[in-house]
Amino acid sequence: MGEGGSEQQQQQQQQQQQDKQSEQEPAACAVASEACCTSDAELEDAGEDAEDILSSDEEYNHKNFGIFQALPVEGEPDWSLDEPDSAEEYLRRVRYEASRCPRVVRAELPATAAAAGGHVAARSGRQVLPDVAPIADAPDWAKPNRSWVLQFVADFQALRQQLQEACLAGGYPVVQVPHVNDAEAWDRACFGHAAQAEVRGVPAAAGAEMTQLTPGICSKIMALEQPEVISLFLRHSQQLEEHCPDSLPLLRAQWLFALAARLEKPCHPEVAAALRAVLRHCCKLRGVVSQAGDPLLPRLNVLIVMAGAYFAQDEELCTFVDSVDLI
Prior knowledge:
The structure is a single chain. By secondary structure, this protein is mostly helical. The chain folds into two domains: 2-70; 140-320, Up-down Bundle (Methane Monooxygenase Hydroxylase, Chain G, domain 1), CATH 1.20.58. The chain is 64% helix and 0% strand. It is built from twelve helices and no strands. The chain has helices spanning 2-65, 87-98, 111-124, 146-169, 183-191, 193-200, 215-222, 226-243, 250-262, 269-286, 296-310, 315-320. The longest helix is centred in the N-terminal third of the chain and has 64 residues, at 2-65. The radius of gyration is 33 Å and the shape is elongated. The N and C termini lie far apart (101 Å). Mean pLDDT is 75; it is low at 30-39, 118-123 and 194-213.
């Protein structure tokens, strides 16, 4: 009887263990099922986020740089493969990783490394970039409001389109212009006697600054090819810093405005840097304007909005025209 009772107890214990396992299996299955659903949902959300980021990046690149995706591919990467088995699969992985990278990354260089790098660059003869001060701010009454910026951008774009159509049609008068490398001849063509006075650092003769954009400037810029437009704009930007550190002569502003109307987008990096320099120069001058009636203020704001909003060199002004398709 003792042995029979012991066997019966063992059978009861085994039965209880089986019952417990039976109760735990449905719960485990439910947890696993829920985990699978959550994983699938997360993957689906991640895929949608990646597509949104990818689409946003493509629109951003097209609007700011005028470039499209060179080799479009569709679908998600096949991560079951250790290595890509085709060029398309490789591109899918590249696009997937690129969509998760921030558009702008700022790397802080330690002071010791920066100093060492500067000494090495100086010894090797390479140019060392100087420390650039932030763009000067101005009081609110000196800044153009959103509606003014939008109206100017629309007018400037219309002017650019008219000039482009006129250049394609070829119906404008042919004007003899100096060779692009003849700096002195271009100074005379742009500023006449005022150029020589500007170089010597003495005040320009009376009447050297005109009150409006003359037909002479228009006819000269219409005769230029794009490389010549770029070269002349870079020269004017450089001269603005060298000869007019504390001013913006009206004639100089007119030439910068007229040449910018002929610049093609997307801008070459050198052109973007020159536009940024013009923006910085004008903002510095605007920061010291003391009253709204100063005749210098309108021409400063024209060049600031032209460079900052239309050519996207100022982050704040870019937000005003973010919804405008600029060409």
